[in-house]
Amino acid sequence: MRWKTVLPVLGLLVAVLVSAEPAPDPRLLQAKEFFGTAGNPEGRWTEGETMVPHVAPASHFQATMIYYPGTEELQSDEVRVIFMGSTYYPNESQSGMSIFVELGNGNRFVFDLGIGSLRNYNALSIPFNTINHVFFTHLHMDHMSDLPYFTMFRPIQGGWTPLHIYGPSGSEKQYGIAHMVHHMMKMTAWHQDSFHSWPIGEGYAPVVHEVDFMDAGGVAYEADGVKIIHWPTSHTKDGATSYRLDWNGRSLCYTGDNRPNSLTIEYCKGVDMLISEVQTATVSVSSKALGMPAAMAAYTIDTSHTPAYGLGYICEKAQPRVCVATHYGYDEIFNNEVVAQVRHHYRGAFAFGAPDLVTFNIHGEGKVWWRGAAAADSSQTPRPVFDSPTVTFPAPRHQVYDVINDRVRANEIPPEKWYPEGHKPELVREWPLTEDLEMPNPFAK
Ligand SMILES: [Zn+2]
Ligand SMILES: [Zn+2]
User: Fold this and answer.
1) Is the pLDDT of residue 387 over 70?
2) Which sign, positive or negative, has the C-alpha torsion 78, 84, 87, 91?
């Protein structure tokens, strides 16, 4: 062989020998394996008592332990559930019951609209004109007393299409939701006529969907791949109702207030979230706190409500991905008692749907996660959302001065008397058109 050929071959051999990695250190391999697996159960043991494997945060969360409203885009296959109200006696951190459900397809649903809950919708910048479907479990005021305000002020935030209101019939017509809404609209006659000087459109023409309260499994709503069914439940009087929502393989039940109900077990088997009211049923202690005779507290619970033992029983039978207790005064002294009672029967994932703003996500392969939400100490009315490049303002029914008589107006102090020199603006005393007015979207960001 000639040197000219041998030299490059030798050079290549030396280069390979020099660049070859040393044999891996077995201790390093062991350490890498240790860090890859240690601490993760991976089926080798059961970690904790309630944090079962499907309790997990999603990778797109901005923060795992706190939901910062407005920072997380809902994924197309995800459901977000926010407790805007979580109890029956409102306090500094809790409003009357209201559950806000957002689906990845853009649909939004509200279940119950109890006292004070609208403050939380504002705090989380949920424009009223994006809420078009409200469901009621029953007509106790801790579940519905914000409805008159919502119905009256929704059009002022651009809610110019009819609000759809769903709820049960009663044993007689006068106890059904249609009767209630009909008379709510009569109760608000003065408010409506006064606000009809502004664009309202069909905002004061709610469409009521009254479901037969006895129709077990009846469909209350079906559109866009969303199905909501209902069934009767025993709570103080005929007409109380529970709901189940299904969409895209995700599901949740909200039972409202009731005694533990076999239909809930039947209709909520295997749902992602089973949301129920809960009572500690520690009557002797809690009646003192409430300042009522123990017998009265016992009578209320024993005829009409769900003690935590009962909730544990239902969740053990229905096996939801997470069992959620709400309609609950979130008191530190009773929290452990609730958990202990629930776990007497049920070993799966458990959470409180309280205090207000606790937020649940159903994501991934049916994984669930929950956390508190960071709401600002103060908030402003969110701007309405219109997707279109133009917005058509409906013509008001009348002008303000059509509904104030001249003698009352005569007492108005002329503005010239109280505007300083040079500060009197051009006053807007009339809506400019008697027809609808199409404008470039003034709410666009
Ligand atoms: Zn209630
Ligand atoms: Zn009730």
Assistant:
1) yes
2) positive
Domain limit, last residue, from 315, 342, 373 = 373
User: Are residues 342 and 411 both part of a single domain?
Assistant: no
Range of the domain at 435: 390-440
Q: How far is the CA of 190 from the centre of ligand 2 (A)?
A: 29
Can you name the residues that pair with 368 across neighbouring β-strands?
A: 55, 362
Q: How far apart are the CA of 327 and the centre of ligand 1, in A?
A: 6
Side chain identity, residue 90: P
**Cβ contact 352:363 at 8 Å:** no
Asked if residue 265 and residue 236 are part of one domain, the reply reads yes
Q: Are 58 and 67 in contact (CB under 8 A)?
A: no
**Residues 126, 248 within the same domain:** yes
* 394 and 316 within one domain: no
| DSSP 8-state assignment for residue 135 | E
Q: Does residue 310 lie within any of the structural domains?
A: yes
Query: Pick from 324, 341, 373: which residue ends a domain?
Result: 373
| pLDDT tens per residue, range 59-107 | 999 999 999 998 999 999 999 999 999 999 999 899 999 999 999 999 9
Minimum-distance ligand to the CA of 86?
Answer: 1
What ligand is nearest to the CA atom of residue 239? 2
359 and 405 belong to one structural domain = no
Looking at the fold, whether 301 and 424 belong to one and the same domain comes out as: no
User: Is 28 inside any structural domain?
Assistant: no
| pLDDT number for residue 166 | 98
Asked if residue 171 lies in contact with residue 239, where contact means CB atoms within 8 angstroms, the answer is yes
Q: Which ligand is nearest to the CA of 112?
A: 1
Give, to the nearest 10 degrees, the angle between helix 308-318 and helix 332-343.
40
**d(CA 276, ligand 2 centre) in Å:** 12
Q: How far is the CA of 236 from the centre of ligand 1 (A)?
A: 10
Please give the model's pTM, rounded to 2 decimal places: 0.92
Neighbours of ion ligand 2 (CB under 5 A): 140, 257
Q: Output the CA angle 67-68-73, nearest 5 degrees.
A: 90
Quote the ligand 2 centre to 234 CA distance (angstroms).
Answer: 10
Same-domain pairing of 362 and 404: no
Q: Are residues 368 and 417 in the same domain?
A: no
Q: What is the CATH number of the domain that holds 313?
A: 3.60.15.10
Identify the CA nearest to 115 among candidates 81, 138, 149, 82.
149
- Is 73 buried (19+), middle (13-18) or exposed (0-12) by CB count in 10 A? exposed
User: Sorting pLDDT into bands at 50, 70 and 90, what band is 7?
Assistant: low
- List beta partners, residue 352: 325
Indicate the number of domains in the chain. 2
